[in-house]
Amino acid sequence: MNYIRITNHQTIPVSDIPELDYNSFFELNTGFIIDHPERHCVNYFGYHVSNRIKLICCIADDLTHEIYVSSCSTAIQTRLQAFTSKLLCFEKFEREIHENFGIDFIDHPWLKPVRYAFNRADRTKTIANYPFFKIEGEELHEVGVGPIHAGIIEPGHFRFICNGEQILHLEIQLGYQHRGLEQLFLMKKSMLQRATLAENITGDTVVGHTTAFSYLWESLCGYQASRDVHFSRTLALEMERMAIHVGDLSGVCTDIAYQLGSSVYGRLRTPLINFMQEWAGNRLSKGLIRPGRNQFPFTTSLANRLTETFNAFEPDFNEISDEFFKLPSVLSRIERTGVVTSADVQEIGAVGMTARMAGINRDIRTSHPYSLYPELKHEPILKHHGDVYSRVQIRKLEVNQSISYLKTLISQLPEQISPNADLNKPGANSFTISLVEGWRGEICHCAITDEKGELALYKIKDPSFHNWLALALSVRNNEISDFPICNKSFNFSYSGHDL
Q1: C or N: which end of the chain has fewer Cβ atoms within 10 Å?
Q2: CATH homologous superfamily for the domain 4-121
Q3: Alpha-carbon distance 57 to 432, whole Å?
Q4: Is 144 exposed, middle or buried (0-12, 13-18, 19+ CB in 10 A)?
């Protein structure tokens, strides 16, 4: 077989990944997805092996719960036929490979830089000379927003081409701020240092990224976590989902000048993150998730406190949501605003809520299950109009769903197992992939070890890497005043993209 089938959080020898010639590699991986909407690329990246570049492509099948992994070895500074010439969903993966290694992809629509990483192949390409798309016309004008924004927000530049107030095109330029995280995972040697890096990939997805790292590290070390560890991770993931969704509903209200909704949703976020402070000592859940251990056991006392929190939270949340979704002034701003079609969502390979808003059932909790989600029998919430209304509906319904799951979980607390202080050293020459459904969508961490069991590669993919293009598509033919509400209804990550 010219590829290997693996499952989520599975470790295999790197030598088990079949290595193909590029033409076979191209036909295999594009063929996996063409006419198969249940499949998508979860990661496609390269790394140096001697004086060549090894490409690894990972295609997830959401029906079989498998991941198809294949590889190809190619020369540096070579020319290859672009996967993107057949499937747009590979567009950004190939731009990153081009930026990092100088591989020139033939028939790619535009090999512009993705991140302007410090170790990019061509240092002459600078962010100051970013090649923006241009449309000429006497009636057209350009509007630039950022990279410095009015408020506490990470840097990103939005370049609009408008005809009057109507947006014809939006280009999103990222890459302003880097921490070199993937390289730091190789440089830092202790598990604690690496876990700290994981929880700082993006500050609003501390639990999601640290959970992905923890499952990956446990898989590399051949360690099986106990039920109480899975319990805490599942509970923390859903608490993080609730807190961010509620906060973003407040942000949407702010952007449409619905002050009551902004205030009430903003207030309701506070008891959720305060509970995380009570549980683990940090409102963003830093320090909670670690490989091989349950840092802060979930006690009966905490279960009672969480029940009290929900008892106070639910009536107010449901009341303000009922008001929000029936006010004509609200509905006039969110219905049919910022539409992305199901066909476009499928074509760009969107994940998470960005896929589910347009009827695409893409949710790692069911497609590649982990933790206690199989026991919860999770059913993804789908909407079909792809507009702001669909996105805020998903947020509201997922909050209610998370509460239901958490009530089920805390009704029967697991036995607390003493933590395993020392995991085995990772196996030599191994490959692992870890998928976790964060509140934005699919998080993917991949790792490869060398002959000594040390990390030779650590590859991170935040769901925003897939999804930023959806924001650009959503504002076409909308008025420029609709951009803030479209942007907040997605709430993508700058830091998760730039790394």
Answers
A1: N
A2: NADH:ubiquinone oxidoreductase Nqo5 subunit (3.30.460.80)
A3: 13
A4: exposed
